[in-house]
Structure formats: C-alpha cells, structure tokens
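Our example copied in:
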Amino acid sequence: MYNSNFKTGVLKVSFSWNPWHGCQKLSEGCRYCYVYRIDEKYGKDSSVVNRSASFNLPVKRKRDGSYKIPSGEMVYTCFTSDFFVDGADEWRIEAWKMIRERNDLEFFFITKRIDRFYIGLPDDWGSGYDHVTIGCTVENQDRADYRLPIFRNIPLRHKVIICAPLLEALHLENYLDDTFDEVAVGGESGKEARVCNYEWVLDIRRQCMERNIPFWFHQTGAKLFKDGRLYRIKRQFQHSQARKANINYMIKRPI
C-alpha cells in the first residue's frame, strides 16, 4: 500500500491520532523537542505519559454508524509521543487492535524506540500490516549505527528513515537498500534549533540516488547553513523553502 504524502514530497496531515501524550527525552535529537516546547506554555509535564481522550479515534463512529475517519485516509499517529514509549505499554495492544480493524486506512508513525518494536506486537503481525508505515529517526551517526541495523531487520512492509533533526553528516551507505521505501531529511525547528548544513542534506541525497532509494528534503529547519551563509528561516516557511530547493528524488517501484 503506502501511498502516503511522503511519497509525493508533500506533507498534508489528513488526520492526526495521538492515542497517548508525553514522552521521555531519549537521545540528542530530543534536546529541543517541539512537544516539550508546546507543553511548557501550558504548564504541562511532557515526561508524563497519559492516555488521551482521543484514544479510540480510529474506531469512533458517527450517528449513522459510519466511521468518523473515512476510508482511504492517512492517519499520522502518535506525533505528541512515541508509539513504543514504555509508559504506553499497557495501551499498545489495544491500539494495535484498532489499527488492525481499520485496515482501510494508512497509519504512519515515527519512533526513536525501534528497539522496543516487539513489545506488545500483535500475534498476527507476520511480515507486517500492509497499511502501516514506520519511520525510524536518526539524528546523528551514533543513532544511525544503533537504530538502523535493528530497523532493517524487523518484520515490516513499509520503512522510512527519518534523518531529523539532522545534526551532522551521516554515512548511510552500509544500510541503504530496497528494504526502505524512502529517506526523509529535515533540520531542527524552534528558537534553540541547531544548525543544519545543506551539504549534509545533499550528501544523503547522493547516497540515496546511488542506491536508487527515494529521497525527500522535507524541511530546512530554523537555521540552514548553505553556500557559506547561515539562513534563519521562520517556522511557516521551513517546509516550503525545502520544496523550493527542488532536490527530492522520487522513483516508481513495482507494486
């Protein structure tokens, strides 16, 4: 399946589903987490994991009995937490049941905890549900070298490498093969964002092209160093400026 907007290079959130909220910072990419920034404004403790009021959103129905989320939609899942965070272990089995029931939707989520993938995995998972895509984030070489060998070998039909926030040059040559649907790259947002060097982005693109793996530069981040100059880019322009770079590499693969 995997007809997500990641494939087209345009990120449009059709539906967001956050079955739980909150997460503990895990690695260097978490330092300036956007969820923490937002929660701080409202006096919330982002490190506390709570089941949300929208937990059963995928299976909610209208008065006429139809699902509130119509068939065929993309559901961006758990973007205010991590689907595999240990604080949600007691709820994950039920979340998987809802995902299995709604096999007419596409579910996409991103994780820094791919090493916890098997905890609470459904008995009928097999090689994966065709309507589920997981993105594994790697912000630096250390995390790439730890997470990607795990990610490459788990039973999953649709895998995306998310190099974000990109904090240094990455060498992915030892990992890139047709196991992966795509590599997406993005800089860091927020007032305290660390610099993303455009040369790092182009080099990852080169690595992807050499192995015929789709590549998407999805956002510049707040600070982009390019051609000897540091650009400070407002949040509302970070995706559009990345698109204007026109460096996405899209290929068609047999279905």
Observations:
- The chain has a mean pLDDT of 94.
- The longest helix spans residues 89-101.
- The helical segments are 5-8, 34-41, 89-101, 141-153, 198-210, 238-244.
- Residues 93 and 121 are 7 Å apart (CA to CA).
